[in-house]
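Contributing new complexes? Match this layout with phosphoric acid mono(formamide)ester.
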Amino acid sequence: MQPHEISYLLDEAEHWVAVNRQAAKHDDRLAGLTQINAFFENSTRTLLSFEIAGKRLGADVVNMHAAQSSVKKGETLIDTAITLNAMRSDVIVIRHGSSGAVALIADKVDCPVLNAGDGRHEHPTQALLDALTIRRHKGSIAGLTVAICGDVLHSRVARSNILALTALAAEVRVVGPATLIPDAIEAMGAARFTDMDEGISGADVVMMLRLQNERMDGAFVPSPREYHALYGLTYERLKRAKPDALVMHPGPMNRGVEIASNVADDVNRSVIAEQVEMGVAVGGLQHERRPYHRKRGPRRSRQRHPDWQSFCFQGPDCREGS
Ligand code: CP
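Output block (do not edit by hand):
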């Protein structure tokens, strides 16, 4: 995406921040439409953000949790996609543990598909809500130094944030043990640091990532205790960053591992709760002016969406944003 397209989305998201802070939050722009949230992986923030946003806009929102679905009986991903398609939903929001699974499903259904995080690949709405949070505090993103710290290797949040923040002209650093930083990270425009103190030195934003033990096959760090000693964000370590540096974390957190509890809970430094609030605004944004009309009859190519929509959409006609 072009910087002006991301900035446009962030501008539009401000409207949804204001709506969500009103007493009366309802709008009927999605009345009569059906939104299926198909989550094949656990989620609190993303699932609820999309659910709340869809309901506030009047959609009929249905959640499909893989753990209670026929996926557990061995149904394939493609058969599940065909089943959801047959129910004539108007938009499907998908989270899946495999990179590329969202694009695969988008290829099999007739309605728009939103990526709520796929494997290690991307988490576009997280990047938008993070950029929105940073911009609300710092005024603009261009020229800021953002240190993304921890388990970058397994992080779709890191990838989407590197794409969005470098597009907006931030200096992005990735910081962590060599075992948890992908080889080609510099090709994405991020600088690599394996020393935490050095990596967060002078940073405007320190974005901590969860140590994703569930995606680790083997030992990437000696122990949580040693990881905390070398890479955990403590007050002492935070002194290396700018005095007004924001502390961020997409959640869920491993308290006492990648971040000390007192830092995470410091309302003067941590914007972690605000990130969650911005997630609901970004959920509303995603529904705004959506071309939520299904094709009827045999599948055929959808009308091309404007480019800015490709950031979060997956589908045959907007694959470039995946
Ligand atoms: N940040 C994030 O994606 O959180 P959830 O896994 O709770 O949705």
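Reviewers usually confirm one structural detail per submission. For this one: Strands lie at 34-39, 60-65, 91-96, 113-118, 145-149, 171-175, 191-193, 205-208, 246-248, 313-314.
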